[in-house]
Design brief:
Radius of gyration: 17 Å
Distance between the termini: 21 Å
Number of strands: 0
Shape: globular
Largest sheet: none
Strand content: under 5%
Number of domains: 1
Helix content: over 70%
Number of helices: 9
Amino acid sequence: MDTLYWIIGSSLLMSAIAMVGSVTLLLKASTLQRILLPLVAFAAGSLIGGAFFHMIPAGLDAFGNNTWFYAWILLGFCVFFALEQFLHWHHCNRAQSSCKQPLTYLILIGDGLHNFIGGLAVAGTFLIDIRLGIMAWLAAAAHEIPQELGDFGVLVHGGWGKGKALLFNVLSAQTFLLGGLLAYFMSFSIDISFLIPFAAGNFIYIGASDLVPEVNKHSDIKTNLVNYAAFVTGILLMLSIKVLLGSYA
């Protein structure tokens, strides 16, 4: 039962992060861009570091070193690739001037699916080891903050009222809890260890394919250095957690 409390508590905290988007109303566009790119880079490092230092080693212990383990990693990678291909889901920290009203609905649908899958994956890590779950939640939360900042700005620019945009952003985040509860109750009838490599694939795709391209194509050397430092900091954070928490076996 303690694990269920961890899953519910972490899911509610993740949902609360959706409210961070309202900060965009208080910041100038130039200020938001300055802080958003380093946040995206930090999130990328956290996700990739989390996958390699935590998810993959723990998954090997729980699932075994076999072909199916790596197939689940690739499936986790491909699921998020499909979300972007078919729902046009973005972390959307690009200029919002091109965003149209229909995109706002696509973003909410994509965000809801993304959170549901994230809830499944993070809850799966809690069910293996509480420490692993905490690490997975931290990496996911680091990624969620810049995403919610961008999504909220897109909704407002697309014609939504500020209150409505905030409400629906929070509602779409509730699917994280649904995914978490589904994983918990699934664990009573099936072996859910496959969610660990699946989560690793999610983290690798989001970090390497979705976030890194946002921050690695700037001509300003100072901007590149700041972003790279933020990226490495995210990796080092995950390494530090690994050293402090030790093995999950």
